[in-house]
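Could you help me review a protein record that somebody else here produced? Here is the record exactly as it was handed to me:
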Amino acid sequence: MNTLVSFIYVNYNSGTYLSKSIESLLKFETLININFEIIVIDNNSNDKSADLSFKNCKIFKLNENLGFAKANNFAVSKAQGNILYFINPDTIFLSLDLQENINLLLNKKLKIGIISPLVKYSNNKLQYTCRKEPSNLYLLPYLIGFKNLFHFNYKYKKEYYNSKFHPDWVSGCAFMMTKDLYLSLNGFNERFFLYWEDVDLCKRVRNNGYKVLFNPNHTILHYENISAKKVKSFSKIHEINGRLLYFYMYKSRQNFYLIYIISLINILLLIIYSLFKNKNDTYEYLFVLKHFIKIYNVRKILY
């Protein structure tokens, strides 16, 4: 069977980032020897960011914002490739070496389920996209605002990124997997609207006997959360929604309630911090706090 790679973008008001990302992809001569297609799912953007025309590019414009997980599942239903490359619009391909990753994914003896590249911020600093399985120990310092003072958070240290290794999970901003495995797992869990769907997918990959692989054989520049930053309350609500749902699904009930309390503390700290830095953010975080102190809203996440 001929290998076909489907590059999948889910777009929402990403401005010019989407077109720049596709342009950076198409410039690589390595694509000459690979059959590929580009699929863009536009989640009802209003900035015309999906008004594009590129080689081998199919664009599907939706009438509503389905969220990240559901839009990716829709994209896969339209994809012809047996290899899927999920990539965020706010990225730039700095280098590209697909053949090794394709060989690793198609070698059934290796049981490689997901492969993630090296990712850097726009200032060229390393982005710590490989993480350990979330737990109270890792999340507590992060959520209460002391993530830079503790070394036992859930990121792998910098030296890990010099070569291949097997993290527990990787960021959904850029990763590859086979379509067969993706479909066997029923894709992304659509209960996650935005955030934590990547943690969940990697968890299910590992639970089914496959490994997550970090391979620094090509590099992505990631501007990170371009769309989400525009509405902080929206972003924060879905980040906490995802965290609570994940802990409810995979951890004990006691852990769930602890994370819920810690999340409320995190919001309170953000409100206090914003009073001194940016009062406009204060109103957004107050909205988030109001949302989560209503038990009805918490129950909607879980059921």
Summary: Residues 231-302 form one domain.
